[in-house]
Amino acid sequence: MRAGAAALSVAALLLAGCASPPPPPPPAQAPPRDDLYVLLPSADGKTGAALAVTHAGSEQVLATPYAAARIKQEGRIESGTATPAEVGQVFGDALAALPPRPVSYLLYFVEGKDELTPESRQVVQQIFAEIARRPSPEIVVIGHTDRVGSVAFNDKLSLQRANRMRDELIKLGIPADRIEVAGRGEREPLVPTDDEVPEPRNRRVEISVR
Amino acid sequence: MARRLARSHRPLLAALAVFLAAGPALADDAGQIKVSKGTVHIERGGQSLPAPVGARVQVADVVVTGADGSVGILFQDASLLSAGPNSVLAIDRFSFDSTTNQGAFDTSLRTGTLAAVSGKIAKQTPDAMKVRTPAAILGVRGTEFAVRTSGPAN
Fold it and tell me: How far is B30 from chain A (nearest CA, A)?
């Protein structure tokens, strides 16, 4: 048995040819560990991202894009970098399966009505198309108004605005039970104003999709 | 008239309420499967369940992909996790307060590959999101990273 193992080692050395020094033989039976941990560049380009990798009591903090930690043998963590090509090769399937990030859109309305402004009417179809393309979307539609008119009137108007957008989404084929609707009236202005001040930026519907 | 109608439909409305409660925003859900390719299933309470797009992911679920499989999950705090082929990903803990953005999120990649984009939990509290592998523990301070590991545990 021992002789056999020795013969195998000699064979391995011979196979390794002239390359020197030969790599240490992997531990018998167990597949060699080849862990790779990589911090990726964030899509929004923000700094401050980091990943702390702790192995056998020692911590490596990955804090720059493509910073990498590798664990190939117990008790040792190597720091370095990975190339984009290596990341693509190792993680391509996983990265391709990352779902789209949640997003939200703002659409603006004509004063006192549940009609979109001409500017918002130009972009609304593209926004709806983006929403419809998402896998199994869950949608929250929240209507708002400016402070012109009574609180009660604006509560009603904000809900009307949200319902108009919901109806359009349902027409696109999105199931009604995946759309939540609320009207917040004039309570949550984007731009704070005195009462009875018209403010186009507050006459809006926010559509959040996840 | 309207009131009588409502009364006569009460059992139906109750049934509808139950149905709606089982709909999109179930509080116990940690997340939802948004991408599912090839062989993917969820191990839950000793059962192996299919994992199509739209399936809910709960705490203690183990998501498993086959040689041709990959899966992408969106969590309540907007974290995204995806696994490549031959991967085993366990959801060990997920709690999230959508008002304060505080919570805790622990997962284990037992083998395979993982890509991740951290969400509101890690943004609010650095290191409140952890990923374990058989060899290491990752404290996530944000935001995008990838992991390859292989079992068994050391």
Answer: 14
Q: Report DSSP state, residue A186.
A: T
Instruction: ipTM value, please give it.
Output: 0.82
Residue B23 has pLDDT above 60, yes or no: no
Hey, which CATH number is domain A103-209, 3.40.50.150, 3.60.21.10, 1.10.260.40, 3.30.1330.60?
3.30.1330.60
Tell me which chain B residue has its CA closest to the CA of residue A36. Answer: B148
Mean pLDDT by 10 residues, chain A (210 residues): 46 46 56 90 74 93 95 92 97 97 96 97 93 91 97 97 96 92 96 96 96
Could you say which residues from 16 to 35 on chain A have a Cβ atom under 8 Å away from some Cβ of chain B? 30-31, 33-35
DSSP string, A58-92: EEEEE-STTEEEEEEETTEEEEEE--HHHHHHHHH
The verdict on a CB contact (< 8 Å) between B35 and A95 is no
State the pairing for strand pair B70-75/B56-58.
unpaired
pTM for the whole structure: 0.79
